[in-house]
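User: Here's a structure from my thesis project, written as structure tokens. My advisor, Dr. K., wants to see whether a designed sequence matches the one we expressed. Can you design one independently, without my sequence as a hint?
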């Protein structure tokens, strides 16, 4: 999976900020953290699962951005991904507080680090997908959008990408660093979307359904001719999807400013 170097640095910076609450939590010599719900300041996570579309040709006004985790601004010069640090932090700790703590189980600090990274990367790849669609629309000289379909495909893409990264046992969100139970909680609960478009992502969770819908949504120029000529249109799109660079990826940006 291709990531620009500056994007990786920004994700690291974001995860560090999301985990600032860890300093207020006690832990034993083995790195096991004792969670006290009274010391975790976070809103109910489901409040972030009903939100407006997160791609446009301009920065969203503050009143519409309060529940966004990220936003993609369409290419002018250049395309931009915005990651909303405070909302991501609030969302992550809300998931931990409401879905992990009731079990009474302890949790390792490395689980919290990997879990925060999972939420940050999920949002990044969601917005990265919008950038890919923007690139394809520019290539086709057709900027029309089906917002609900694109949001559904974006969620399906982020889920597929995170699952691919999870297969790397010693990776940053692999099973060595992130317990199976916390991984399942984050993957299931963070994708219980209720907003139009977002909530339809499971229609595209299978590989075949995802690629069929994607080729139909933003086909490359002359795709019919290419297909008849034996060229793998899906292969072309796969290459663009996993290599299209993003101009800027600012974090630590409050949606309330």
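Assistant: Designed independently from the structure alone:
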């Amino acid at each position: 999976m291709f990531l620009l170097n500056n994007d990786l640095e920004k994700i690291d910076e974001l995860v560090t900020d999301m985990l600032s609450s860890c300093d207020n939590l006690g832990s034993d010599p083995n790195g096991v953290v004792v969670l006290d719900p009274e010391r975790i300041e976070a809103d109910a996570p489901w409040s972030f699962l009903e939100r407006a579309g997160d791609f446009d040709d301009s920065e969203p006004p503050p009143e519409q951005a309060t529940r966004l985790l990220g936003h993609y601004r369409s290419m002018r010069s250049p395309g931009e991904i915005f990651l909303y640090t405070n909302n991501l932090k609030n969302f992550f700790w809300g998931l931990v507080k409401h879905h992990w703590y009731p079990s009474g189980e302890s949790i390792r600090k490395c689980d919290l680090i990997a879990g925060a990274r999972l939420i940050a990367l999920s949002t990044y790849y969601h917005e990265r997908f919008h950038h890919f669609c923007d690139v394809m629309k520019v290539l086709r000289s057709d900027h029309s959008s089906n917002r609900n379909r694109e949001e559904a495909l974006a969620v399906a893409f982020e889920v597929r990408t995170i699952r691919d990264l999870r297969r790397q046992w010693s990776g940053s969100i692999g099973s060595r660093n992130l317990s199976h139970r916390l991984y399942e909680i984050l993957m299931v609960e963070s994708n219980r979307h209720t907003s139009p478009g977002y909530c339809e992502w499971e229609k595209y969770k299978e590989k075949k359904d995802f690629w069929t819908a994607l080729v139909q949504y933003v086909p490359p120029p002359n795709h019919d001719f290419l297909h008849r000529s034996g060229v793998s249109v899906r292969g072309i799109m796969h290459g663009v999807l996993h290599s299209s660079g993003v101009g800027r990826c600012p974090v630590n940006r409050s949606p309330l400013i």
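When you compare it with your expressed construct, this may help: The two ends are 33 Å apart (CA to CA).
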